[in-house]
Structures are given as structure tokens and as C-alpha cells.
Specification:
about 325 residues
């Protein structure tokens, strides 16, 4: 119990010392930024003012994460992290994201050490936890990509009808950005904003393709570039692409239905051993801790994890059908 208290005290002291140094070193800058914010703020309603007050704790935590990221982040890795945050639409600065990655490791280490009371599993989990923010960004990026893929045929249909009604292509995109929800509405609104700020429309669409990284969207952008060079009926081209994408989504949904059993098997393979281990850890901790304290238990635990990964990869290979 004394070791746990010392560990928690050391972690708390480190966090408070870092925050104190941050306020001492950057207090003049913080005061100036606060004055600028007060003098340039747009008047708002009282309810919004209360919301701003409740966010002060979160803003302080973000500042702390930003300090960690500034001290520990590498300049060479900043651009890649920024691109990842942009593609996942995570509204954080690069320094804050790096600071969150660093902060996860000691937090998970303390929780794991309190649970297992053994040093090496806590160290192992703390190292694995360094990938948690990155994994979250990848999951959010994939979800945003899937949502945009589902919205793309409807957006092309609206643009095609708007072109037939006499709108220009930027005006048709503006209609979609106002009528459709995120993410397609946000992305097209950004394309329109970049075009109004002076970028050519082709360059703005190219930036859109780099942000989203969707094969379907790249097909649309390529068709637009070809049409811009050689001409043609843009409304008819977009209508045909919309029909093709709808059929492709329909086939993907059918394949997803047919492979549901395999994906459910993979889910059971992942969750069942974890559920049994947690149940035994609660009911009889000494029985489970043998796997951690004994050499043979460590070998069996490593073999189980390896076989789990092999099974998951095999099932994923079976159910992953490209369309």
C-alpha cells in the first residue's frame, strides 16, 4: 500500500510541477492572450457565457497537454500528426494530441499497477497505451470516411440536378454544403471557402481528395478534371457516377450481410477470453495471478495472445472482400 501511495504522489507531484512551470514561464503570454480575447470577443448570450466558464477546466487541461507536446514532440513528426488529425476531423492542435499520447502512458501505468500489483504488466500496458490516441484517430477517420462514402451518391445527385436547373458547379456545391449534414457538407463547404480565398477549384478539389482519401471521391475528382479539360455534359457524368456508386454501396452491403457470421466469430474470439479472464480475476484473483507470477504461466499467456492474433488475422482475411 505504501508503494501505491508513493507512486500516486510522485505522479501528482510531476503533473502539478509541470503545470506550475508552465504558468510561471508563460504567464505574461497568457495574460496578453486573455486581454485580447476579452477585447475582441463577440457579445454573446448569458447561457453561452456560463458554458465558457464551465469549459475553463478543460481549457487548462488542453494547455497542459499542449505544453507536454511542445516539450516532447519532434518537429519532423508534427506534419504527419497534423495530417492525421485533419483527416479524422479531431479539433486538437498537434501539441495537444502529442501531449495526450504522452499523458496516457503514466495514467495507464498507475491503473494497471493498482490492479495487478506487478511491475512488468503495468509497464507493458503503459507502452501499449501510447497507441490509444492514434488508434482513436484511425477509428474516427474510418468512420468519417464510411459516412462520407454513404453520402456521396446523394450529394452527386443534388449537384447534377442543380446543374440541370442552371446553377454553376460552385453554386451546386454550395447547395450541398447547406442541405447535407457532415461530413460531406463540411468538406464541400471547405472547398468553397478555399476557392473564395483565391485557390483554383482544381487545387481545392485536390486538397479534398488528400484529406478524405476515398477511392469513390477520387473517382469523382478525376472525372471533374477530365471534364474540365475535354468538356462534356457534367450533369450527365455526375448522374452516371452517382448510379455507379449506389450500386457499389449496395453490393458492399450485401457482402457485409453475407459475412456477418464470420465477423461475429471474430468478435467472440476477441471478447470471450477477455470476459472469462475478468470474471476469474474478480472471483478468484489468486488463481489468475499464477499466469503472471509463474514462468510457465507467462509462456502460456503469450502463446494465447499470439494464437488470438493469428485467428483474428485469418478471419479478417476471409471476410475482407474488395469490391
Amino acid at each position: 500500500m505504501q508503494y501505491i501511495f508513493i507512486l500516486c504522489s510522485a505522479f501528482t507531484t510531476t503533473v502539478l510541477l509541470t503545470m506550475g512551470l508552465y504558468h510561471v514561464l508563460f504567464s505574461p503570454r497568457l495574460v496578453m492572450l486573455k486581454r485580447l480575447k476579452i477585447n475582441t470577443a463577440v457579445p454573446s448570450d448569458p447561457q453561452q457565457a456560463e458554458t465558457e466558464k464551465t469549459r475553463s477546466a478543460g481549457e487548462e487541461f488542453k494547455r497542459f497537454l499542449g505544453l507536454l507536446g511542445t516539450m516532447l514532440g519532434r518537429q519532423a513528426n508534427t506534419k504527419a500528426v497534423q495530417q492525421k488529425l485533419l483527416k479524422a476531423h479531431i479539433l486538437m492542435r498537434v501539441e495537444e494530441f502529442i501531449g495526450l499520447t504522452v499523458f496516457c502512458s503514466p495514467a495507464v501505468f498507475i491503473v494497471a499497477y493498482l490492479l495487478f500489483k506487478v511491475l512488468w504488466p503495468a509497464v507493458l500496458l503503459s507502452l501499449i497505451s501510447l497507441k490509444i490516441p492514434d488508434l482513436y484517430a484511425n477509428i474516427k477517420k474510418t468512420g468519417r470516411l464510411n459516412s462520407l462514402t454513404q453520402q456521396l451518391p446523394e450529394a452527386l445527385h443534388i449537384i447534377s440536378n442543380s446543374l440541370r436547373a442552371g446553377y454553376s458547379f460552385p453554386q451546386a456545391m454550395s447547395v450541398v454544403s447547406k442541405e447535407m449534414a457532415a461530413p460531406i457538407g463540411e468538406e464541400l463547404a471547405r472547398v468553397i471557402w478555399e476557392n473564395r480565398m483565391g485557390k483554383p477549384l482544381e487545387e481545392a478539389l485536390h486538397n479534398l481528395g488528400e484529406r478524405v482519401e476515398s477511392d469513390d471521391l477520387n473517382l469523382v475528382i478525376t472525372a471533374l478534371q477530365i471534364q474540365n479539360q475535354i468538356g462534356g455534359n457534367l450533369a450527365e457524368i455526375l448522374n452516371n457516377i452517382s448510379h455507379t456508386l449506389r450500386e457499389r454501396i449496395r453490393i458492399k452491403n450485401e457482402i457485409k450481410t453475407l459475412t456477418a457470421q464470420g465477423r461475429l466469430s471474430a468478435l467472440i474470439i476477441i471478447l470471450l477470453p477477455l470476459a472469462v479472464a475478468c470474471f476469474l480475476m474478480i472471483m478468484n484473483p489468486e488463481y489468475m495471478l499464477v499466469l503472471v507470477h509463474e514462468t510457465l504461466g507467462l509462456v502460456l499467456l503469450g502463446a494465447a495472445v499470439l494464437l488470438q492474433l493469428v485467428g483474428i488475422l485469418i478471419i479478417r482475411k476471409i471476410v475482407a472482400i474488395e469490391v
